[in-house]
Write a structure and sequence with these properties.
With 444 residues, the chain is mostly helical. The chain is 69% helix and 0% strand. It has 20 helices and no strands. It is globular. Keywords: Membrane, Transmembrane, Transmembrane helix, Transport. It is found in: Membrane. One of its GO terms (molecular function) is organic anion transmembrane transporter activity.
């Protein structure tokens, strides 16, 4: 009950504060967002319950209709998650994760810091080539079985989730906001950023973050040991081998389906359909491994969580709150470039904590574009910074798909993610600002 009262008090305080600068409807929307975020963070109610509250609250306070709100709970990306969760459940059911865990421990240093670094780097590498969502879905089940120590397990899962977000910015295909930026630039007749140039621009930032984040995650756990009870299996079973071949074909298909403009246009298949198709393949007789009873293990609360995120983003747009915020930002266009970049980076990083990065960047790019025009600064630079920051939010599960998948593992609590994430958000903002001023502004 204490958590509920805290959330209500903070929401009312936000309404009173916001009323001085925004309309009543916008102040109510901001108050409702605070209510949801606090309840997600302090776990005053189950995550799934909190995630369904917009369906009740938004129509009640005349933010959006019930139909408009519920439509956000069936976005196509949700079915990508559903397919990925089915594959993850099959991985656990066949114990393939245990086999891979043993192999991982023989390749990398068998210390907490060594494994944390290796998981983060592996995750970042894969997510630069296939989506960060898919990477997290494939790797987190492995990390879950490396140790029974909850403190260490949290660090391993977060290393994969954060590594996936870090690596997702390295290529244009790594995460949806990158593709949204390229589409926005094309729409406004701006010169596109070539694939190789994108990599050269983002690689130094990714390397910096892959040094900082695993280092801090490994603090305080160096004395812990990995479990030795994992089965030392020399050979794969027939089921494990079949699942490994299926997952290998999935990775290959995702690779060849990815666009590498202007050199390769990809297959043109929808990645969400690919993941859902492979998830459903897990039920095929003599091919798959699951029965319908296994779907009880699907973390539906995470699916509801993303529906809430899309609803918040839609409310920002439909109520005009996004445009009103843009007007306030335009008054800050006479700031020095360093302060303007820090402001934009902080605004995007912390705003994306309460909505999906894909939804947010769709709303934010037009705002930032107007800001860049008024400030008469390097337009490509400010848009690029905004897009990267949309993927570098580490505090809440709703911020990015890898964060949500980390939550679905059951090992990570919101308070754990918030504790590490606040530090990494601040360090990420400083790192992005530094790289933007020292490097990006001379090549964009």
């Amino acid at each position: 009950m204490k958590q509920l009262l805290t959330a209500l008090i903070l929401a009312i305080a936000m309404f009173v504060f916001a009323s001085f600068a925004f309309t009543t409807q916008h102040a109510i929307l901001l108050a409702l967002i605070v209510l949801l975020v606090v309840l997600w963070t302090n776990e005053g109610l189950p995550i799934g319950v909190v995630s369904l509250l917009p369906i009740i609250l938004f129509p009640t306070f005349d933010i959006m209709s019930t139909n408009a709100t519920t439509a956000n709970y069936s976005k196509s990306i949700i079915f990508l998650f559903l397919g990925g969760f089915m594959i993850a459940i099959a991985t656990q059911k066949t114990n393939l994760h245990k086999y891979v865990s043993n192999k991982l421990l023989t390749i990398f240093p068998n210390t907490p810091r060594g494994i944390i670094f290796s998981l983060a780097i592996t995750s970042a590498f894969l997510s630069s080539l296939i989506s960060n969502t898919t990477t997290a879905l494939l790797l987190i089940p492995i990390a879950m079985f490396l140790t029974t120590d909850l403190n260490l397990k949290v660090r391993l899962v977060l290393a994969i989730a954060y590594g996936a977000s870090i690596g997702g910015i390295v290529t244009p295909i790594g995460t949806p906001p990158n593709l949204i930026l390229l589409g926005f630039m094309e729409q406004h007749s701006m010169e596109a950023i070539p694939f190789v140039k994108w990599i050269l621009l983002t690689a130094p930032l990714a390397a910096l973050m892959l040094t900082i984040i695993p280092f801090f995650l490994s603090l305080g756990v160096q004395h812990l040991k990995f479990d030795t009870h994992l089965e030392d299996r020399e050979h794969l079973t027939s089921e494990q081998r079949r699942l490994l071949y299926i997952m290998g074909s999935l990775v290959v298909l995702l690779f060849i389906n990815s666009k590498i403009e202007p050199y390769y246009s990809g297959l043109g298949l929808n990645e969400k359909g690919i993941l859902l198709g492979y998830g459903l393949l897990m039920f095929m007789p003599k091919i798959g491994f699951l029965t319908w009873e296994d779907t009880k293990k699907v973390p539906y609360e995470i699916i509801f969580l993303f529906g809430a995120g899309f609803s918040i983003a839609a409310a920002f747009s439909s109520t005009g709150l996004a445009n009103e915020i843009a007007q306030y930002l335009l008054e800050l266009t006479n700031l020095p470039i360093i302060l303007l970049i820090i402001l934009v980076a902080a605004l995007i990083t912390f705003t994306t904590e309460v909505t999906s990065n894909t939804a947010l960047i769709s709303i934010a790019l037009p705002i930032i574009y107007s800001l860049g025009q008024a400030a008469q600064i390097n337009m490509t630079l400010i848009l690029f910074v905004s897009t990267i920051c949309a993927s570098y939010a580490f505090m809440l599960p709703i911020a990015t798909p890898p964060n949500a998948i980390a939550m679905s593992s059951g090992a990570v609590k919101v308070k754990d993610m918030a504790k590490f994430g606040l530090l990494f958000n601040i360090l990420g903002i400083l790192a992005i600002t530094t790289v933007a001023l020292v490097y990006w502004q001379f090549y964009l």
